[in-house]
Amino acid sequence: METANKGGFNRVNHVGITVANLEKSIVFYEALTGTKVSNVDEIGGSRMARVQGLDKTLIKYANLQLNNLNIDILEYVEPVPSKASYKNNQISAMHLCFEVDDMDAALKRLKAIGIEPEGEPIIFEKEDGLKSGFGTVVAYFQDPDGTNLELIAPQGPFKRKGK
To answer: CA-to-CA distance for 151 and 85, rounded, in angstroms?
Structure first.
């Protein structure tokens, strides 16, 4: 049934991550993903402010293009940003999850760039209350500004079709 695709909500273009320091975050996300940013620019003015529900805005940003998703790294100059802090269990908290084929290699990469997971990775088992997806491995970590990030080596229903 095609009704689920009406309106065009069947693809995601990008996720935006607001950061304290664009240059520092470019270094982090390039090291994490092994991909160089494709564009660094800035945008602002009254039209951009209005579309975001702000009085004024100036944003320095970089675009990082991954195979299936772009990451916009955003540093707000105006208005002066405040720091949000979310735990994964808080309503409206979001996280970005990177799909990996080899969790051990991904964790070594994290450690190589100075990032420690928030806890030991777990492998989904029946005791976790799941009915399927056994063997999926997940780990959580944060970027330098505290953005919630996840690694997943998916199995069963967590694997996307065609993978």
So the answer is: 20
Domains present along the chain, CATH in parentheses: 13-80 (3.10.180.10), 95-163 (3.10.180.10)
Residue 83, class by beta-carbon neighbours within 10 Å (0-12 exposed, 13-18 middle, 19+ buried)?
exposed
Question: How far apart, in whole angstroms, are the C-alpha atoms of residue 149 and residue 83?
Answer: 17
DSSP 2: G
DSSP assignment of 78-91, as one string? ESPP------TTST
Instruction: Return d(Cα 120, Cα 7) in angstroms, integer.
Output: 40
The C-alpha angle 28, 86, 84, rounded to 5 degrees, equals 75
Query: Looking at the whole model, is its pTM more than 0.85?
Result: yes
Mind listing the pLDDT tens digit of every residue in the chain (163 residues)? 445 666 778 888 999 999 999 999 999 999 999 999 999 999 999 999 999 999 999 999 999 999 999 999 999 999 999 998 888 888 898 999 999 999 999 999 999 999 999 999 998 887 877 778 888 999 999 999 999 999 999 998 888 877 5
